[in-house]
Amino acid sequence: MGRAGSALRQVLETYGISQNKLAVAMGTARANVNRWVKELRDPAGDVIFEIKEALRQINQDAADEFVGLYLGDAPQNSL
Fold first, then answer.
1. Contacts of residue 64, Cβ cutoff 8 Å, sequence gap at least 6
2. Is residue 52 within 8 Å of 63, Cβ to Cβ?
3. CB distance 48 to 33 below 8 Å
4. Fewest CB within a 10 Å sphere: which of 22, 53, 56, 70?
């Protein structure tokens, strides 16, 4: 398990987005978001899109970073 949950946890922490706020934006239970973040369950493929769209409503940068982390192509910080 893990890539989606790990990416989601990092984005929520980085941008100060609560699990509840994401759940409300998605129209799902906070318990579902908690399971993803704790990597107890992987979100289904179609739910990844819903997560991205909900994050986009909250913070476009968070949505972009989630996609980058999930796909493994997040921009690297340059020195």
1. none
2. yes
3. no
4. 53
CB atoms within 10 A of CB 40: 10
75: its two tokens: 């921009």
| 64/11 Cα distance (integer angstroms) | 10
Count up the domains in the chain and report the number: 1
- Full domain range(s) for residue 38: 3-71
CA-based nearest residue to 16, from 52, 59, 53: 59
Query: The domain spanning residue 50 has which CATH number?
Result: 1.10.260
Residue 70's identity, in one-letter code, is Y
